[in-house]
Amino acid sequence: MKLLDALVEQRIHEAAARGEFNDLPGAGAPLQFDDDFLVPEEVRVANRILKNAGFVPPAVEQLRALRGLQEEFDRVTDPGARCQLQARMLALDMALESLRGGGCVPHEYRRRIAERLSERAQSRVTLEAK
Predict the structure, then answer these.
(1) Ranges for the DnaJ homologue subfamily C member 28 conserved domain (predicted)?
(2) Where are the domains of the chain?
(3) Which of 58, 94, 100, 130 is the most buried (most CB within 10 A)?
(4) Max Cα-Cα span within the chain
(5) Degrees to nearest 5, angle at CA 72 with 110 and 76
(6) Residues 6+ apart with CB under 8 A from 93
(7) How many other β-carbons are positioned within 10 Å of the β-carbon of residue 81?
(8) Using an 8 Å Cβ cutoff, are 90 and 97 in contact?
(9) Model-level pTM?
(10) How far apart are the first and last CA of the chain?
């Protein structure tokens, strides 16, 4: 990948040296970056309405929850509790991946994996409590 990056950088520098970027539209004007400039216009309007109403996208809520679980995981020393937290973090991570539209593992299979990990974590906690 670094070779490809170097090739791209080299071609950009060569084009700039030839002056190919001098007459581009908006040349010299400051860039206007929005926090959602990569989001399609029709989705952007809906997101702004929801944001102004105090709602956040599900992915943002899940990222916050995942960060909270990670912080809790870093503080906890009990192996059973850490296992449960790992299962919850995995489930949240898989949910985030499905929101992104990625992942090659079907949703139902991911859900069953998360449930199985939770069951194992719970059984470990139960065994350690005895």
Answers:
(1) 7-74
(2) 58-129
(3) 94
(4) 76
(5) 105
(6) 66
(7) 17
(8) no
(9) 0.44
(10) 52
